[in-house]
Amino acid sequence: MVANSSGVSLERLAVKVLLKLQAEPGRWTARSLARELGETANRVNRIVLAIEAEIGVERDGAYGNLRVLAPGAVQADGEAEV
Fold first, then answer.
1. pTM for the whole thing?
2. What's the first-to-final CA gap in the chain, in angstroms?
3. What is the DSSP letter of 80?
4. Is the pLDDT of residue 61 over 90?
């Protein structure tokens, strides 16, 4: 596991994470994405949580693969995203 961050700004990392999640939905976990980007799992997970709060993220289980929800999509719990 990477011991420190790659030096990329948080904003730039957020763009990279979002683009990867949208390009390949269901392929990445937060940890595998961090490894791919050369980042710490904490930084990537913080970004995933922010994306989840803003537009929604669906996970396969607690540590499963991630998918970004489209605006207006319905989450697994049945609540519609606004």
1. 0.75
2. 36
3. B
4. no
